Amino acid sequence: MRTINTQAIKQAVFEACQSIQFRYSKPMEEAIKNYMDQEMGVGKAILKVLLDNSELASNQHIPMCQDTGMVVIFLKLGQQLHLEGDYVIDMINEGVKEAYDVAYLRKSIVKDPLLERVNTNDNTPAVVHIEMTNDDRCEILLSAKGFGSENMSKLAMLTPAHGLKGVEEFVLNTVFTAGPNACPPMVVGVGIGGTMDQAALLAKEALFNEVGDRNPDERYANLERDWLEKINASGIGPQGLGGKTTAIDLFIKTAPTHIAGLPVAVNINCHMTRHVHITL
Ligand code: SF4
């Protein structure tokens, strides 16, 4: 049995909340450069501005975007791991709170969604999904989700009769409807299967892939390539102003489902796609 103090989790969250705000990940930076080579005119110019923005933000230690997001964490805890110290969820929220304070990141969370939209003033609570794993590790998948793109995400409870054609139509229509509102170029997460809630989680977790990752099942990997190509043929382009780069990548995650159902969720990330994967 391995032991980790929850202080270490807090520290990891504290550091991660900041590091993802100031520069694109290397794979994202490379991908934008590659797409830039294929673009012309305004599309090319916008991708250049995005790269310059990332460089500037990194040099001056200011966030790449004013919307510094809602923190979403997938916490994977090994069955052979013992956590000691204060309650892990409290420690995660402490890490978020301190990071958003010291790095002057915008606090964007309201304490009640409908009747009392008062800012909590510390960007907590984070959304935390906990999963058990069969090892002794603690994995933290952390993202800061901007809501321009989150708001354009959708879920559909399709039936098996809708089949592949219905799923494809739903995915592509969701992205086309999102258009400029999701701050393209986007990264698209698709969750297929499970129940309503699981499909949404699959789509969210799909966004933790790195650009260029492909589904291990070649059939789904082909769908990822095909749908990405169709999205980029739409002409929406960077910031919705036209071009070939509407999405940088698209990832599919699947799960077994009920004989009567075909749930599909599409979770959209903007080009910030701020996320990190830490193993303690
Ligand atoms: S969706 Fe992304 S790029 Fe757009 S405002 Fe939010 S964080 Fe910024």
Explain what you see.
This protein is of the alpha/beta class. The protein has 2 domains: 2-21 and 64-145, no CATH class; 147-274. 39% of the residues lie in helices and 25% in strands. The chain has 8 helices and 10 strands. The strands form 3 sheets. A 4-stranded mixed β-sheet has the order 4-2-5-10. It has a 4-stranded mixed β-sheet with strand order 6-9-7-8. It has a two-stranded parallel sheet with strand order 1-3. It is globular. Iron/sulfur cluster binds next to helix 5.
Global morphology: globular
Number of helices: 8
Q: Return residue spans where pLDDT drops below 50 for at least 5 consecutive residues.
A: none
Bound molecules: iron/sulfur cluster
The gyration radius over C-alpha positions equals 19 Å
User: How far is the N terminus from the C terminus?
Assistant: 14 Å
Q: Portion of residues in helices?
A: 25-40%
Mean pLDDT: 97
Structural classification? alpha/beta
The main pleated sheet reads as:
4 strands, mixed
Q: Strand fraction band?
A: 25-35%
The string of secondary-structure elements, in order, is EHHHEEHEEHEHEHHEEE
Count of individual beta strands: 10
Strand order of the largest sheet: 4-2-5-10
Q: What is the total domain count?
A: 2
